[in-house]
Write a structure and sequence with these properties.
Blueprint lengths: L15 E5 L2 E5 L14 E8 L2 E13 L17 E9 L2 E8 L5 E5 L7 E5 L19 E4 L5 E6 L3 E6 L13 E2 L10 E10 L2 E8 L4 E7 L7 E8 L12 E5 L2 E10 L5 E9 L27 E2 L5 E3 L3 E4 L5 E6 L4 E8 L8 E10 L4 E7 L6 E8 L3 E9 L4 E10 L15 E9 L1
Antiparallel strand pairs: 1-2, 2-3, 3-4, 5-6, 6-7, 7-8, 9-10, 10-11, 11-12, 13-14, 14-15, 15-16, 17-18, 18-19, 20-30, 21-24, 22-23, 23-30, 24-29, 25-28, 25-30, 26-27, 26-29
Length: 440
Amino acid sequence: MPNPYLPNWEYIPDGEPRVFGNRVYVYGSHDLAGSDRFCDYTLKVWSADIHDLNNWICHGDSFHTRMDRDHESDTSWTDRELYAPDVVERDGQYYLYAYIVGSKGCVAVSDRPEGPFKLLSTYRVPDNSAQILEEGHFIDPGVLVDDDGRVYLYCGYLSSYMAEINPDNMLEILPDSFQPDILPVDEPFGFFEACSPRKVGDTYYLIYSPKMGSRLDYATSQSPVGPFQYGGTIVDNGVDYPGGNNHGSICQIKGQWYIFYHRMTNNTVMSRRACVERISILPDGSIPQVEMTSLGFDQSLSPYRFIPADLACVLKGGCYITERNVIDRAVVHITSGCVIGFKYLDFGEDYSSKTMEFTVKVRGCGNKGKMNIVLDHSENGEVIGTCDIGADHEVIHTAVKAVTGRHAVFLVFEDEYSGYFGQFFEGRPLCELDGFVFHK
C-alpha cells in the first residue's frame, strides 16, 4: 500500500503504531478536510493484518469528547478537541491515553485493541506534583510498559517531562516520579513536542518533534528515566514538500522496521494524512535518516498501473495536493517551474522496443505550457519525453524513451510565454494533475 496508506477521505495524523497479536493498529488524531484547526472530537482506529499491509480496516470511532449522531460523549467535564493519543496493553486490557485541549486528560480502557474505549478516569495526580501534570498540559502522551511491568508516561509541549504510572490502576501518577526536561530544549535535541517511547532490545528510544517541526528526531538511553543521548533525524516531511508539524513513531512488523508519520494536504497544516517509510536500526542502535517516498509499505510502484497524483512525495514551486471530494484528489496550482515527483517506479527489465507511451490526465487552466518527464533527478535527470498542455481538461498521450529498472519520476512544468507579454502570464496555473500511467 503506497503513501498515504489509508483511503483518500481519511485524515489520521500523529499516528502511534502498535502491534497486538497478528495485527498492526494505528492510533492517532482525527483531522478534517478544510478545517481551520487541528483535530476534532473523535478518535478512530485503523488496523491491518501483519501479513497483508495492503488492506487496512477502519474499526470506527473509539472515543469522543462530543456527542455525534451515533455516540454519546465519553467526557462529562469537557467538549474540547482530542489530540495525539496512545494505546498500550497490560494484562489483556488495552489502555487509551488521551490529551484534551485545555482540559484534564484521561485514561480509558477496552478489552479489544480497536476499542471502543470506556472512560476510567482523568489522570490522578499527587497533591505535591507539578501543576503542569494536572490541567491542560498533559500534551501528546506516549506510554511505555517496560519488561518488568513498570509503566512510564512521556509528554510535553515546548518542554518535555515524564512520570511513572501506577501499574495497578494505569492512571495514577506515582509520587515523586515527575521528572522535567527528560529531553532538553537546547540543541542538538531542540525538543518541541510529540514524545513517543519505544524499547528495542535493551535500548530506550524517544521519538519526538524538534523545534524545526517538520522532522521526527530520536534520542536513546539505557534507562527509561534517562539520561538520553541525541540520535538524529529519522524523517523530515518538509524536504521538497510543503512541510508542517510531525508526529509519529517506529514499529517493527515481521522483522522490518518502519517510521509512521504524516504529511500535509489542502495547502494547510491542518489536513494531515498518515504515511510510513521503511527504516533500519543499525547494530549500534542508530537510525539513518530516510527520505520521503511514494512507497508506503510497498517496495516499488508499477508505472504500468495508474499513478494517482496524491502519491507525489515531491512538490516544489507552490503546487499542492487538495481534495476535490472524498474520492478525487489532484495536485493543483501548477505553475511554470513546479516539480511533482514520485519515488520509486520499477519499469522492469528486458524491453526490446526503443519507445513506450505515457498517458497523463490533467485539467487545463486556460494557459499554454509543457510537461517534461524526467528520471532520477528533477534538475539534471534524463528527460525521456515531453507533453504539451492545452487549455482544456484532457487526457494527453505521448511517446517517451523506453527505460528499465527502478527510477524516481519527476514531472517538470514550463509555460510557453515569452517576450514582453510573457510577464503578464507569470504565476498563472497551467493545469491540475490527476495522475498518469506508462504503457508498452
